[in-house]
Amino acid sequence: MIKHSKQRDCIHAFLMTRQDHPTAETVYMNIRRDFPKISLATVYRNLSLLADMGEIQKISTPDGPDRFDARMEPHVHFSCDCCGSVIDLEMEDVSDLDEIAGRSFPGKVTGHSILFHGICPGCMECAS
User: Fold this and answer.
1) For residues 61 and 71, what is the distance between their CA atoms, to the nearest angstrom?
2) C-beta of residue 68 within 8 angstroms of C-beta of residue 22
3) With contact defined as beta carbons under 8 Å apart, do 76 and 116 qualify?
4) What's the distance, CA 43 to chain centroid?
């Protein structure tokens, strides 16, 4: 049994208000307002625990720090190669990918994560 934590509740509540998939550092800077003595290590530990418990998603990006998302329904992400932002990419339902992958895989496919990358709309406007 995992001990209840006000700090973990605050971290989760903070993530629920965000659409931008913040880094642990961003979470830390914001959580310090309510918990001035909290350490970055404690934030990392709680983010990992929340992800392990299935309450948030941890999004690993190839060229930057991990990002965190409290939106748990199936969806895909987009990472900007210019500014590093991670955003939700709204697209048609891809929930059948697990079944499709499982057809040609001798093991058991239980899930997937998709991270597209390219240039976000904001960076496209700057480049024009």
Assistant:
1) 17
2) yes
3) yes
4) 14
Q: Per DSSP, which regions of the chain are E strands?
A: 57-59, 67-69, 76-80, 86-89, 115-118
Q: Which single residue is written with the structure tokens 């509540």? A: 13
DSSP assignment of 98-120 equals: HHHHHHT-SS-------EEEE--
**pLDDT < 50: residue spans in the chain:** none
Rg of the Cα trace of the chain? 17
Rounded distance between C-alpha atoms, residue 128 and residue 31, angstroms: 37
For 83-100, write each residue's pLDDT tens digit: 989 999 988 888 788 899
Token digits of residue 22:
């913040």
Tokens of 33: 């307002």
What is the reported pTM? Answer: 0.85
Supply the pLDDT for residue 127: 65
pLDDT in tens, 114-127: 899 999 999 988 76
CB within 8 Å of 14: residues ≥ 6 apart = 27, 30, 31
